[in-house]
């Protein structure tokens, strides 16, 4: 499933609900390889793709999970982020801003969905992993 494509996300949640059973928890964890570049070398298309993959997809999955959980009056949604959720880095303006956005989304969803019995864990931030993208 491409988590940034609304129809695919809706289908995924529908299939899970029908074939596996009630959706009681959702862990949102995406981290696709993205372009690392200074802001003046990043295209609008590159920036948009980073946001779609890292923030907009969280909105889609969080919304769909909440729709199924709301029917039962309970559930848990967990988002994972990155150290970029709290600290920007040179060359990571698209990624860092998307992860900051995901953090704000989770906080807003927690306030909105909490009274409906749905617990939204704010972004869980893992540590940096020594990968090729960090060495760029």
Structure, described:
The structure is a single chain. With 136 residues, the chain is α/β, with parallel strands linked by helices. 50% of the residues lie in helices and 12% in strands. It contains four helices and three strands. The chain has helices spanning 6-19, 44-72, 93-113, 132-135; strands at 25-28, 75-80, 118-124. Strands 1-2-3 form a three-stranded parallel β-sheet, with helices on one face. The longest helix is centred in the middle third of the chain and has 29 residues, at 44-72. The two termini are 28 Å apart.
Radius of gyration: 16 Å
Strand order of the largest sheet: 1-2-3
The ordered string of helix (H) and strand (E) elements is HEHEHEH
Strand content: 5-15%
Which geometry do the CA atoms define?
globular
Low-confidence stretches: none
Helix content: 40-55%
- Give the helix tally: 4
- Report the major sheet: 3 strands, parallel
List the helices and strands and how they pair.
Blueprint: H1 6-19, E1 25-28, H2 44-72, E2 75-80, H3 93-113, E3 118-124, H4 132-135
Helix pairs in contact: 1-2, 2-3
How would you summarize this macromolecular structure in one to three sentences?
With 136 residues, the chain is α/β, with parallel strands linked by helices.
Q: Keywords, please?
A:
single chain, 136 residues, three-stranded parallel sheet, 3 strands
């Amino acid at each position: 499933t491409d988590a940034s494509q609304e129809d695919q996300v809706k289908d995924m949640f529908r299939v899970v609900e029908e074939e596996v059973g009630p959706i009681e928890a959702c862990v949102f964890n995406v981290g696709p390889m993205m372009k690392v570049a200074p802001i003046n070398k990043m295209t609008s298309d590159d920036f948009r793709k980073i946001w779609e993959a890292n923030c907009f997809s969280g909105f889609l999955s969080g919304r769909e999970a909440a729709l199924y959980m709301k029917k039962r009056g309970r559930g848990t949604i967990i988002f994972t982020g990155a150290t970029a959720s709290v600290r920007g880095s040179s060359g990571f303006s698209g990624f860092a801003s998307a992860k900051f956005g995901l953090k704000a989304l989770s906080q807003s969803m927690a306030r909105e969905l909490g009274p409906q019995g749905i617990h939204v864990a704010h972004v869980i931030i893992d540590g940096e992993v020594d990968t090729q993208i960090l060495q760029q």
